Amino acid sequence: MAKTTLQNPEVPHDDTSVWYAVRLFSLRLRDVTEYFASKGMTWFVPLHYVEYEKDGRLHRELRPVVSNLVFLRVDKAPDVFKKAFAESPYKMSVLRKNNPTRDFCEIPAKEMMEFRLMCNPEIELRRFLSEDEARLKPGAPVYVKYGPLSGLSGRLVRQDKKYYLLKEVPGLGVMIKVSRWCCKPIKQEIP
User: Which value, to the nearest 10 degrees, does the dihedral of the CA atoms of residues 106, 111, 113, 118 take?
Assistant: First the structure.
């Protein structure tokens, strides 16, 4: 059996499923992704390039941004997810909301698609933030109207005299450098 890599499986753009962020209590990310793949589930792990020196040479390798976080796609049958999660030999938990019901944090397919696009390891001017750091960044909700990032939405934040488009999902946030002139504000209704 061939060893699977931590590459991002493709998901169609017209997907209507939800995604869950799963926190692992071990560093066996590859084994967990293989387990969920064997159950027929689609997963996503944000990757980035890391440079390291070995034998006097500089090497570049794709590694997970967070070594204990995986995103799982749940189709219209959440019972399959619950059964696979209960039968798992690995310790893990699904990130939950902070409301009294403690429901799972559901990520809509459109939001996850945009997040996955922004996590492309080929994008150079990108930064990853923890969930708490992303929540503390002030910024206005915008969508990108022009340029290579057109169609994406998020918050326009400023850091180090540069503007970034910030997309948050439970457990992680990603920022991509963007020109503020390409962004248009999202009109919000005032209650």
Answer: -120
Q: Which domain holds residue 97?
A: 12-108
Residues facing 24 on adjacent strands:
92
At residue 180, the 3 state secondary structure works out as helix
- Read off the CATH number of the domain in which 128 is found: 2.30.30
Q: How far apart are CA 9 and CA 109, in angstroms?
A: 14
**pLDDT of 125-135, one tens digit each?**
888 988 888 88
Does residue 5 sit within a domain? no
In terms of domains, do 69 and 41 share one?
A: yes
Q: Give the pLDDT confidence of 137-175 residue by residue, as tens digits.
A: 888 899 899 888 888 899 999 988 999 999 998 888 999
